[in-house]
Amino acid sequence: MKTAAVAAAGALVVSGAVGAGVWALGGGPRLEVVQRSVSVSVAAGGEQSAVAACQSHEKALGGGYAVTGTGFATSSLFVGDAWLAAAYNPDAAPATLTSYALCVNAKPEFLGGVGWSEQAHAYQDRGNKMTSASGGGSIHDLTTDGPFADAAKHASASPSCPGDFTSLGTEFRSGRTVAGRGVAPVPLDTLTTKSAYADPAKAVPYVRLNPGSRLSGAAFPVRSSDFITHQTRIEDPQPPEANYAVSVRPICVRLGSVSVATVKVAVTAGGSVDAAVSCPKGKLVVGGGFQFPAVNETGGSEAPARFFGDGWLYAPADAPAAGEPSGRKVTAWHVTGRNGQKAGLDYYNSVWDEHSDRETRTGNGYFDTHRRGPDDQELHVSPVPDSQELVASAVCAKIDAKPTEPAKAPAPPSVSRPELPHALDPAPGGTDGTGSAPPSASPSAPSAGASPSTSPSAAPGTTPAPGGPNSPGTPAKGGPTRPGTPSQSGSPTRQQPQAPAVNIQQPSAGGQLRRGCEESFAGTARTRPGDQPLTDPQYTSWRITGPNGPVALGAGASGRFLVPLLPDGTYKLVFTATDPAAGLTGSAETSVRIVGCIR
Fold first, then answer.
1. Which residue of 341, 548, 549, 568 sits 20 to 30 Å from the alpha carbon of 376, by its own alpha carbon?
2. Is the distance from CB of 178 to CB of 148 less than 8 angstroms?
3. 51: helix, coil or strand?
4. Before 237, cis peptide (omega within 30)?
């Protein structure tokens, strides 16, 4: 069953054509937030990433994702000034991942240098657990003595922004809790931004993973069953889901008049629900999130926690409405929540106390979903409820920055059928074993991604290269720079322009890239003629050709970029550069092998 709920509507404005800016009735551009999106297929049992970028006159405030079909996000973060989302599909049927960038036609001030911190771990145990058993003795398990002992205390993370910067949301990326152990992704049940208790005008992010812990089904002796529900034990070894963790980073921006709007809807067990949250008139939707609390986790001290095996509750969509065309104005933050539980079943850690007729308060404690014998006594059974509540939130704010409008693309100089070179010069280092291909030198057929007659900026709905490898504090550069004048040779006859000479220095041919990790990339690109270096991210890009087509990594001659979540195998890495003066594009390619960080 699928239902829908909508919060109060936001302000209605007059919009221009997609990519042409938004103009008030009085003339001139006005501030507006739009979404730019890219969709990719996620194979059954696989992971995939997609990158959405803003136009050159826009700034990415953040982003989100939507999953059509089964699956959930494993990473959602900036790559340069674009937004990357990665998703895992545990089902046997393919799914679709859509990555969104929230783009504003202004340049608000971001806080630079914000680092990743405060890992949230899937591994959890009761917050009120007692390690000393009633009547003497103690409980020893992974939460007290094992490698997960510290991780069990950090199931959630709440990174903050200093000073007068406020958080629009949280970036997250997947990782391991304990090295050397198997790992499998689990969904988030909380990725939200709340109003701060001390200052309601300040927003704070909060992230939590669905738990991966599993309670032990074996018996352990206790002298008394008092507080038996607090005396849990954890299975060892844990399933690989328990080793999953995410690192988080807040998106910190200087904004005015910040508030958080929320809407709550019930999601039936086994069903889904759509929720949309709008902002008050005069404020823009600049971010959002969701929270999926379980009613029977809170309240009394005996309330159970959700454990692996209880069924997932998660929100697969955290973005503007799925299916909206790229470039549409953002009027609400949309969330689709799914409840994977089955109504009426007992929680995995329902507790039964084995007893005899003469002694009903001592014996062995079992943590299971059924009685072990006819004389077992039921203690605190907690069935899965018919529905659980989804809380969708939108971050609303005013942006104190001047609106920008699209820059006109520079007209490249006219090139009338330049002569092709008699021989291709090998790319620098091309014969030293790097495997770099010689540059493309066909001025009449530039490679995809740049055209002599268009700006290298990405068009809506495509998968452009992000604006650079820096953290979200680095402002996006403006429109393309004015083309330079081609260099003159010693001869009075002007040399005909050729495609740039391009070379990949790092990684070397056959080098390994770790899936889901940041790796170093370096290359060179020089104009011909002129031999001038090309380093501007506007005109340089990196991509890997995956099974579903090219996947953008980043931009710039060098940097650290996130390796996409592609299956183990050998792939083609391509570094491309465009000469802005001539509009000609050259590229180099090499083969790299992607290996798993996450399996």
1. 341
2. yes
3. strand
4. yes
pLDDT of residue 219: 66
Q: Match 């940097």 to its residue by tokens.
A: 559
Helices and strands: H and E segment counts in the chain? 0, 31
Place of tokens 């079943």: 345
For residue 437, give Cα distances in angstroms to 162, 427, 440, 560, 591.
Answer: 47, 7, 9, 22, 10
pLDDT value at residue 202: 65
Torsion-angle region of residue 270: left (phi > 0), alpha (psi -120 to 50) or beta?
left
Is residue 36 within 8 Å of 460, Cβ to Cβ? yes
Asked if residue 541 has pLDDT above 90, the reply is no
Choose the weakest-confidence range: 20-24, 343-347, 381-385. Answer: 20-24
If pLDDT is split at 50, 70 and 90, which confidence band does 25 have? very low
Cα separation, 290 vs 100, in Å, equals: 16
- Rounded Cα distance, 13 and 488, in Å: 52
Highest mean pLDDT among 381-385, 440-444, 484-488: 381-385
Measured distance CA(2)–CA(117) in Å, rounded: 36
Write down the residue that tokens 């086994």 correspond to. 270
* Cβ atoms of residues 494 and 579 within 8 Å: no
Q: Measuring CA to CA, which residue among 279, 283, 295, 225 is closest to residue 256?
A: 283
pLDDT category of residue 498 using cuts at 50, 70 and 90: confident
Q: What is the layout of strands, in order, in the sheet containing 284-291?
A: 156-157, 203-209, 188-195, 284-291, 387-398, 256-268
On the question of pLDDT at 212 being above 90, the answer is: no
Checking DSSP bridges between strand 498-506 and strand 549-555, what pairing results, if any?
unpaired
Strands 272-278 and 2-6: parallel
DSSP class of residue 401 equals S
Beta strands in 269-355, from DSSP E residues, in sequence order: 272-278, 284-291, 313-319, 332-339, 351-353
Whole-number CA gyration radius for the chain: 27
Separation of alpha carbons 387 and 270, rounded Å? 9
pLDDT score of 341:
87
Task: Count CB neighbours of 299 within 10 A.
Answer: 8
Looking at 101-241, list the stretches that DSSP marks H as alpha helix, in order from N- to C-terminal side: none
Cβ atoms within 10 Å, residue 420: 13
